[in-house]
Amino acid sequence: MFIGSTENSFGALLFKLRERAFLSQRKLSVVVGLPASVISEIENGRRPPPPERYVHSIGRALKASASEQTALSDLAALERQSLGLRIGKATPTHVAALLRDIASISHQLSPEQATTIRAQLLEGGLAMK
Q1: pLDDT at 83
Q2: For a surface tag, which of 5, 15, 35, 88 has the fewest beta carbons within 10 Å of its beta carbon?
Q3: For residues 115 and 109, what is the distance between their CA atoms, to the nearest angstrom?
Q4: SS3 for the chain, per residue?
């Protein structure tokens, strides 16, 4: 599973559960105590998941099942591993997801693997600093 991918991300699951519960971002924000703009940014992959206390509040507010609550918590924990990564608002969603994926596995990459990824990007014609 790729952490930032659109189908298997905290934000995607949050969106799915919120829509199923027929709650707007604004109504959810009032219930859990997060600004609606933050909920929007999380759903759109522009912001990492909130702290665990909010994840639990979100699950309760959306009437998530036990397995859905576990999935929310697990995805949030995995995605928080890349918290040192700052992604600008102008970054396309698919690129932001890729950057989060790489950041979440960065501690597992050997120098050789990092070099291979860089070489593949360069072969694709991407300019890098």
Answers
A1: 59
A2: 88
A3: 10
A4: CCCCCCCCCHHHHHHHHHHHCCCCHHHHHHHHCCCHHHHHHHHCCCCCCCCHHHHHHHHHHCCCCHHHHHHHHHHHHHHHCCCCCCCCCCCCHHHHHHHHHHHHCHHHCCHHHHHHHHHHHHHCCCCCC
Burial classification of residue 7, based on how many CB atoms lie within 10 Å of its CB (0-12 exposed, 13-18 middle, 19 or more buried)? exposed
Pair of tokens at residue 57 = 């509040």
Residue whose pair of structure tokens reads 């995805």 in the numeric block: 75
What does pTM read for this prediction? 0.63
Q: What is the mean pLDDT of each run of 10 residues along the chain (129 residues)?
A: 55 95 97 94 87 94 95 88 69 80 73 86 70
Size of the chain in residues: 129
